[in-house]
Amino acid sequence: MDTKPHFIAECLAEIRDRITRAEQAYHRPPHAVTLLAVSKAQPEQSLRAAYKAGQRCFGESYLQEASAKMTALADLAIDWHFIGRMQANKTRQIAESFSWVHGVDRLKIAQRLSDQRPGHLPPLNICLQIKLSDEPTKSGADPDTLLAMARDITKLTGTRLRGLSVIPEPTSNFAAQRKVFGILRAAAERLADDGITIDTLSMGMSDDFEAAIAEGATIVRVGAAIFGERRITSGDGLVCSD
Ligand SMILES: *Cc1c(COP(=O)(O)O)cnc(C)c1O
Fold it and tell me: Where are the alpha helices (H) located in 91-205, listed in sequence order?
């Protein structure tokens, strides 16, 4: 696949256009949805090309790979989001170098991120990742314990609870996609009923972001539809084509 800057700029423009059309179709306010460009396993030139085309928020999943890109792209004002799996022994580096974390799935991780967030930086924005009931092997918080966990997390000073996130099993059926994203929307409403205000629903990827927008997504995380197939093997030794 083509990595030339014009290709990425065109794909970005098309995704932005589809986001705008989905906002209109589902009666969302204009600009309600932020596009997070998922750049994991993409070379640094591709991020530069997207940046040049106006993209500012980038999502990375692998720490070693992300930190190499942060060094190489230090001249750009990028807003870095960590969207990978959370491991307790990796929280310090995340707390020090990212502005958002999308996959917080337990209180202990949030506590570590809060403790390790450097004082000169604003609080780290976090989303609690929800696990769906039919996915016992996946990481994520159980919707039943969500409320208690959210309440504890709002007391932390180094982090700011912004919202919820989900990574559903892929399905090509639009109604089925909406149904899953609706669970996240309902969970957010339950938190609001309890006085915990959040402003973010991080949901929707290349193949289902329109359904997510229909259900209230405020951040869609789109990778392949912008950059094409993933091309570098992560330095963390993980397979990137997940
Ligand atoms: C890889 C990834 C994405 C992007 O997926 P695409 O299908 O490439 O759009 C979004 N969210 C998370 C958590 C990911 O790991």
Answer: 91-97, 107-116, 146-154, 174-193
